Amino acid sequence: MNHVWRLIREELKPYTKGIILRILLAAIISATPYAFSFLGKWLVDGVLQVSGPPKAAVEAPAAVANGETTGASTDSEAAASGVQVAGVTVQWTENSSSEKLRMLLIFVAVTMGMHILTTGLGAWSELLNSRTVQTMVYGLRTRVHERLANADSRYLASEQTGQFMSRVLDDCGNVPPNLINLVVNFCTQVMMLILGLVLLIRLNPAMSLVAAAVLPFYAVTCIYFLPRLRRNTEDLRHNAARMTGHAIERLSNVMTIKNYAQEDAECQRYGAIVDQQSTMARHQHRLNLGFNSLTTLITGFATLGVLGFGFLHIKDGSMQLGEVLAFYQVTAQLFVPISALVGMASVAQTIQILAERVHAVLDAPVAIESPDDAVAVETVRGEIVYEGVSMRYMEGGPFAVEDVNLRIPAGATVCIVGPTGCGKSTLLHLLTRIYDPDLGSISIDGVDIRQWPLRRLRRSIGNVLRDTDLFTGTIAENIAYGAPKADEARIITAAKTVGLHEHVVAMPKGYKTPLGSGGETLASDDLLRLSLARALIINPAILIVDDTFASVEESLEESLRRTLETALADKTIIIATSRLSICEDADLIVVQQRGAIVQTGTHAELMAVPGLYRRMYRRQMGLSEKH
User: What 3-state class would DSSP assign to 551?
Assistant: First the structure.
């Protein structure tokens, strides 16, 4: 239960006062059944006097006659005022009808007052609980989301997106209410158990042993059921996250599924996961039902046993009816905290599983952070140097880039080319520290990028990714994503630069047109323009374009490339591309193969010598080797 204790230490500490108040409120509310038990005893024996005088009071006159009493002179005085019989004061007076009515009204008033009090305290407790739970959910979700946003990219690639969503939404939403209820209920039920035992012993020590005799049966029930409940609960949570991840992944790739006519197959796959979840849920229900049924039976037999012994005591005159009923009610109420504490073991195991999943994210390695001794960077020229850079995505796996040595002059336009999977995108990701190299270093303007403030580094580099990600919001908000404080004029300028403005103003809502979830979808050409505008609006010193132009016509590609060169004059532009026509005017072409750089030079230089670039270019242009 180490994860549960960690939650209590870390998550509940800021809410200690509120939780203590809730425990006190819950204790007062939970103690009212004990109070009602003794009120019932008073009603039966003291007000209505259903059983008549106690046995000792009946025998008192005889004791007086035999000279066994002190403190009274007549039999009537012994019965009404109090007689010492064998050292015990026996006092009993029959109530008149008016006295019974008066005392009955007092009983009704006290009972109603207690009901009103407990209802008010219960409402206060629920309001307090709601505020605490929602505050905790907010704090936990934001921390988990923040850790995922800053987590190592290798860690993020280790699971489906849906798995992480399940942890942020479901697990973080379930932990606080269950944890608070566990702590409050545990403390409250322990207090009620102690109070109940004290009251039972005071009422009748011998009969208290009957109630205690069933505790071993509770222990055996726990030993059998709780490990099985834990294992099945853990399987349920893991399979639920798998089900969510599978659904999100398939829905995200629905076009591929349709194009390959795999709708039926995917429905069967998902149906198998859902069926597995249903099977485990049914098994969980059976375990809970068996566990609860057995504890209920144990409680029922114990209370019946207490009631049976109580009737024997009534028969021999050692107890009155009200006393037996009070003992019975206290005993029945005593098993409420016992049953609750037994059931909490299952709840604690569920919280343990949820906490393990949440802590797995909170303990995930932070990808990359700004160094404590970061170098202050004023202006960025854009000179980039890779020195002996190697990186692999998995420990022990192949190198995605290997022993890369490359110098890119400030203000140069560079194209990185090579076969699919040669490491072009990885080389760009290393520049923005999405990943750090396993070996070697990368510097900008002579400063190792690991010494840069991370935010300053990434805001100096504009990114145009292969796939344009749209966020829920307007066209203007998507363009200004990297510069949320940009005014309308700046947004329009960026859109005009890439030729997007005319397309936007032709829409009914213009720049306020909603995009993303539930919004409109732009054509691929306009998506590329929006992505370029998003990069340009931050006025980057370096622009990297990751194989984006391959998705548009060559005429648009040429126009956009010229636009970039004009808009970013004297800026460093790095383009990873599979379309080699882009490379003809580049200042430098870098040719990669299997993660290593095999050639560098201009288009003319590389075409002048045999090598990978010339073969790729001729093949793409449909030229024979003789040309």
Answer: helix
Element (H, E) at 407: strand 399-408
- Cβ contact 180:12 at 8 Å: yes
How far apart CA 503 and CA 479 sit, in angstroms, is 14
Residue 88 domain-assigned?
no
Q: Count CB atoms within 10 A of the CB of residue 110.
A: 14
Cα 301 to the center of its chain, rounded Å: 41
Whether residue 545 sits in one domain with residue 526: no
Give residue 532's domain range. Answer: 468-539
CA 384 vs CA 73, 425, 574: distances in Å: 115, 16, 10
For the domain that residue 431 is a member of, what is the CATH number?
3.40.50.300
pTM listed for this prediction:
0.60
Query: Does one domain contain both 314 and 405?
Result: no
Q: What is the pLDDT of residues 169-220, one digit of tens each?
A: 677 777 888 888 888 888 888 888 888 778 777 766 766 776 677 777 777 8
Q: Is 134 helix (H, G, I), strand (E, B) or coil?
A: helix
C-beta separation of 580 from 417 below 8 A = yes
Q: DSSP letter string over 306-373?
A: HHHHHHHHHHTTSS-HHHHHHHHHHHHHHHHHHHHHHHHHHHHHHHHHHHHHHHHHHTSPB-----TT
Nearest to 458 by CA among 215, 149, 166, 229: 149
Query: What sign has the CA pseudo-torsion 247, 251, 252, 256?
Result: positive
CA-nearest of 330, 333, 312 to 321 is: 312
Same domain, 252 and 276: yes
Residues 312 and 453 placed together within one structural domain of the fold: no
